[in-house]
Amino acid sequence: MEKPLVAASACLLGSPVRYNGDACEFRPLSRRWSEHLKLLPVCPEVGIGLGTPRPTIRLSRGPDGVRLVEPRSGNDLTDKMVAWAQRTSDDLAGLGVDGLVLKKDSPSCGVERVKVHPAKEGRPTRDGVGVFAMVFMALNPQIPVIEEGRLNDPNQAEHFLARVHFHHRWKAAGQDGWTAQRLMNFHQEHKIFLVARTADAKRKLGRSIAAGFDAGLPAAEVALTYMIEAQQHLNVLPRRGRFAHAMERALARMDLALSSPGREQVIRSIHAYRKGELPRMAPLVLLDHLAGAAGSVPPWLGHLSNPVPAATGVLARV
Q1: How buried is residue 50: exposed, middle or buried, by Cβ count under 10 Å (0-12/13-18/19+)?
Q2: pLDDT digits (tens, 9 = 90+) for 114-168
Q3: What are the distances in angstroms from CA 155 to CA 159, 261, 295, 317?
Q4: Separation of alpha carbons 178 and 38, rounded Å
Q5: β strands within the chain, DSSP E
Q6: How do 5-9 and 99-102 pair as beta strands?
Q7: Cβ count near 295 (within 10 Å)
Q8: I need a surface site. Which of 32, 139, 248, 260 has the fewest CB within 10 A?
């Protein structure tokens, strides 16, 4: 399978496109993760024709709502940015982007808590969303989006990359066209992945598939609804207990003829992980070894672990 395709703010990948002519390279993404992901730079402000360097722009709240403006000249760039964002969002989805990493605090790219300045005097509030980020997320709710600041947290980095990989697998599963059987097979193969990360998602998504086909909807529409709802469920950082429960489910699905001492060792390791005494890698390695002893490693076992562990280097600390 090809590497997942992740778009990112160009400045995070080392391009000197910020308002002051600098970059703000996020090296885990641009250097380490690039071995496991295909990266695509995007810069909304350069995209609408602003130069580098350039006057600062910001979000401003006035009688017409929140607008994107250049305070020095008074130019309103909102409509130009929205039009560019709509075209580019469609282009990125058409290219098969599996995730998007954006620059925090940016009036074009910030995902949350971006400064919104009052039109006249007063203090800014931290309740804005960058214009490009807002448009992209509205048009493509099936694609995970995150700010680079959150990727400094190993747990959030692992979870985001898992969501990216989940979308990549979904895209590959439907590359020859969706059918009811292909979608159900995808859901069955990823039940352990869902159980490990969010409560009730497996059951609710199964019902969503059934409801869509019962209503006579096209398979492609049901599949898109499935991924949108799945990413909504996955938008919450998973807890240690959910991973432990999923590993117990994985163990229960293995051949009961496998060595009893081996199973007991895995159970003890899972319990120790649940209590924070062992890293997640410890029971996963034992599960992998136990499955290998049976002659084959089931594909769903890999859904419990980080899809690109060498890229993040965080699996042993989760």
Answers
A1: buried
A2: 999 998 888 999 999 999 999 999 999 999 999 999 999 988 998 999 999 999 9
A3: 6, 32, 32, 8
A4: 25
A5: 5-9, 38-42, 58-62, 65-70, 75-76, 99-102, 114-118, 125-128, 145-147
A6: parallel
A7: 7
A8: 260
